[in-house]
């Protein structure tokens, strides 16, 4: 069973929700969890939980990096911060992967400091999964979007590498034998979007074994056209936040309307199941977390507002990625490029 | 919870060491969480019954350690199961090689015949009177270690028993608490009568509660440091080593059994050991002694020591061994400082939380 290091102090509701999630997980799976953070605080929370101590170890770390802190300054100043210590434990082989709901920038820097980049990879990518329509019954309800913030702008080579990394992740985690990979662009024509995207398009067409389906536009994101969508970090981050915002807006609007007029309320009640399903679809807690791809070690970043359930699912995703050899598959794909 | 540190007293003439074990979920891995499993119990053969991993070597280790120190040991089992399963249980104990001095079963049939149906499920009155009756015939110098689980009311029964024997709960308080619990008046009268005839002694040293249901440890804080909730018998063994009731080889035997019969792994045992230390039930020095001994026998994963740590431990280890043996032969553990338990409030909270 894999050992997963968890930054116990990272996240808006840390360490309480993180520790509770791990306590629940310890009763459900064989995953070994290494909680990194303030030992006495973590144990106090555990004492109030139903848990299996045989599956939980704690590594004390004095400091923690807050969600609002400047990542660079914090990583420099807090050498014993939980995220840095956790990354170090993974790098030394004491754990197989790292999960954090904390400051994403600090997590990326911690990985850059301690993890080893897969030979040939130019830059790591932060991926995210999001719900989308499905076109056939067995299709995974989640698509993978990368990069969503590890980079700002990138060149064609980096986009091609993102495609290979996303392809490997989808093959292993979503069990899609030949994931459909697309490039997020402002039009479907091969030459649109400027020189970098056009160059990336041409190169992606020629990568053997990659099921590249061409460019897709923003309105295709929520459709089931592609399983892996590639873009530079700035664009990916904006797209992801917009998807999240829209989903919240729909749920909020429905609730507000229902409160204002009885006819709307009646309609809302009739649609309750559908709204509930929409809420479920946009519930990040169900997806666990998103991977950072490109290192020999694996990092899963969970949402900052992660509940115990979200943390639990993030650790499950990490364990699955370790078991299924995601990083090995990525290394093999990059090696063949 | 504060640490349960025991102070140590100079050697005195040792009385017998009495081990009292609850049977189901403490010694035996009895499955009665569904009606189907409950119905199967009377038909189980001795060889079908399974001991909780670590329980058998723990009892053997306690016996051997006490015998080595020149103490007699008595082992008693108390069960809320009916006497109809006594034969199979006794045969199971024989199969496990466990010698015992007494075993009590609850005569449920008697309650049915007399129409006392409430007594069928009520265990506090039954177990408390049985414990007091047994204690009445015990030398006043006897020390007791009690083992129970978190399924029914063992923490409450054992704590009440310890405080009644120590004279910290008087007759009126006992009547009050047992009445609040809803114990049959005849059993209350019997408990009060026994209380008067039991010699006063602070001899109940420790209560170990096997967290079979994984009840949160905080739920037991009100019982004070005398009660130690443990997730497996390695945790109990480590604490018993600290108190001088077990040797390190006996602790290792428990760890071995957890791996061979309980499906545990060295990594999981290391986590369990660290957990009981973090919860304040095991001193850091004792935890290190246990850990290093188990490491050396491959029962815990090998840690990557720095050269400084390694040389420190290598120098310390013979002294630590010598200290443990001297302590075992010359000192006897004193009970953890008793905590004044408000049983009335505890009964209300305890029953509300269950």
What does this structure look like?
The complex is a heterodimer of chains A (337) and B (354). Chain A is of the alpha/beta class and 337 residues long. Chain A has 13 helices and 11 strands. Chain A has an 11-stranded mixed sheet, sandwiched between helices. In chain A, helix 1 (16-28) crosses helix 12 (308-323), helix 6 crosses helix 7 and helix 6 runs antiparallel to helix 13 (326-335). The longest helix of chain A is centred in the last third of the chain and has 28 residues, at 233-260. The mean pLDDT of chain A is 90. Chain B has 354 residues and is of the alpha/beta class. Chain B starts with 7 loop residues before the first strand and ends with a helix. Classes of the chains: A alpha/beta (337), B alpha/beta (354). Chains A and B meet through helix 2 and strand 3 of A and helix 12 of B.
Short summary of the structure?
Chain A has helices at residues 16-28, 39-47, 71-77, 82-91, 104-114, 156-173, 195-206, 233-260, 262-270, 272-281, 284-287, 308-323, 326-335, and strands at 3-7, 32-37, 56-60, 97-100, 125-131, 142-146, 180-184, 211-216, 228-230, 290-293, 298-301.
Name the descriptors.
heterodimer, A: 337 residues, alpha/beta, Isopropylmalate Dehydrogenase, eleven-stranded mixed β-sheet, B: 354 residues, six-stranded parallel β-sheet, two-stranded antiparallel ribbon
- Biggest pleated-sheet summary of chain B: 6 strands, parallel
The mean pLDDT of chain B is: 85
Q: Report the radius of gyration of chain A as a whole number of Å.
A: 20 Å
Shape of chain B: globular
Along the chain, the helix and strand elements of chain B come as EEHHEHEHHHEHHHEEHHHHHEH
> Rough shape of chain A?
globular
The order of strands across the largest sheet of chain B is 4-3-2-5-6-7
Secondary-structure-based class of chain B equals alpha/beta
Q: How many β strands of chain A by DSSP?
A: 11
């Amino acid at each position: 069973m894999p050992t997963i290091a968890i930054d116990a102090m990272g996240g808006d509701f840390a360490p309480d929700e993180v520790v509770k999630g791990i306590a629940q997980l310890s009763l459900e799976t064989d995953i070994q969890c290494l909680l990194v953070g303030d030992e006495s605080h973590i144990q106090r929370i555990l004492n109030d939980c139903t848990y299996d101590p045989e599956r939980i170890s704690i590594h004390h770390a004095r400091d923690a990096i807050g969600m609002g802190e400047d990542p660079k300054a914090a990583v420099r100043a807090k050498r014993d911060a939980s995220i840095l210590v956790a990354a170090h434990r993974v790098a030394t082989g004491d754990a197989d992967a790292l999960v954090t709901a904390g400051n994403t920038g600090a997590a990326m820097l911690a990985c850059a400091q301690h993890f080893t980049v897969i030979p040939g990879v130019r830059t790591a990518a932060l991926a995210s999964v999001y719900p989308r329509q499905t076109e056939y019954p067995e299709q995974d309800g989640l698509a993978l979007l990368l990069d969503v913030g590890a980079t700002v702008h990138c060149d064609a080579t980096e986009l091609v590498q993102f495609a290979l990394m996303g392809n490997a992740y989808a093959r292993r985690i979503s069990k899609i034998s030949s994931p459909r990979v697309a490039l997020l662009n402002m039009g479907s024509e091969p030459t649109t979007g400027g020189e970098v995207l056009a160059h990336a398009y041409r190169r992606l067409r020629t990568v053997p074994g990659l099921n590249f389906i061409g460019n897709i536009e923003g309105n295709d994101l929520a459709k089931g056209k592609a399983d892996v969508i590639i873009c530079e970090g700035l664009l990916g981050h904006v797209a992801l936040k917009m998807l999240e915002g829209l989903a919240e807006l729909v749920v909020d609007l429905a609730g507000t309307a229902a409160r204002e007029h009885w006819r709307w309320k009646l309609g809302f009640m009739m649609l309750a199941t559908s709204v509930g399903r929409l809420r479920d679809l946009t519930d990040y807690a169900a997806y666990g977390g998103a991977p950072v791809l490109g290192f020999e070690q694996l990092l899963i970043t969970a949402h900052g507002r992660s509940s115990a359930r979200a943390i639990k699912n993030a650790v499950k995703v990490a364990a699955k990625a370790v078991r299924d050899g995601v990083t090995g598959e990525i290394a093999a794909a990059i090696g063949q490029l | 919870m504060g640490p349960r540190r025991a102070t140590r007293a100079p050697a005195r003439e040792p009385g017998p060491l009495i081990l009292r074990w609850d049977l189901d979920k403490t010694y035996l891995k009895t499955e009665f969480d569904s009606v189907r499993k409950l119905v199967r119990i009377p038909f189980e053969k001795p060889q079908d019954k399974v001991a909780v991993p670590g329980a058998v070597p723990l009892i053997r280790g306690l016996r051997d350690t006490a015998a080595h120190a020149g103490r007699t040991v008595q082992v008693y089992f108390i069960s809320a199961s009916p006497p109809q399963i006594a034969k199979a249980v006794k045969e199971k104990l024989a199969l496990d090689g466990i010698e015992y001095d007494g075993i009590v079963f609850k005569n449920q049939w008697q309650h049915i015949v007399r129409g006392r149906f409430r007594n069928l499920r009520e265990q506090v009155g039954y177990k408390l009177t049985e414990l007091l009756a047994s204690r009445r015939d015990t030398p006043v110098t006897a020390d007791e270690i009690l083992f129970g689980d978190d399924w029914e009311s063992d923490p409450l029964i054992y704590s009440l028993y310890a405080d009644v024997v120590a004279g910290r709960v008087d007759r009126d308080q006992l009547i009050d608490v047992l009445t609040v619990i809803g114990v049959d008046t005849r059993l209350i009268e019997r408990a009060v009568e026994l209380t008067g005839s039991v010699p006063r002694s602070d001899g109940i040293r420790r209560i170990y509660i096997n967290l079979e249901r994984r009840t949160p440890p905080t739920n037991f804080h009100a019982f004070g440091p005398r009660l130690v909730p443990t997730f497996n018998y390695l945790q109990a063994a480590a604490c018993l080593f600290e108190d001088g009731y077990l040797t390190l080889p006996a602790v290792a035997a428990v760890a071995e059994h957890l791996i061979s019969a309980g499906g545990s792994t060295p990594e999981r045992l290391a986590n369990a050991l660290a957990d009981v230390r973090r919860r304040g039930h095991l001193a850091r020095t004792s935890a290190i002694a246990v850990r290093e001994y188990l490491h050396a026998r491959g029962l815990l994963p090998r840690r990557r020591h720095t050269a400084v740590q390694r040389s420190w431990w290598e120098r310390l280890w013979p002294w630590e061994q010598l200290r443990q043996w001297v302590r075992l032969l010359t000192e006897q553990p004193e009970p953890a400082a008793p905590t004044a338990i408000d049983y009335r409030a505890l009964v209300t909270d305890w029953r509300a939380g269950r």
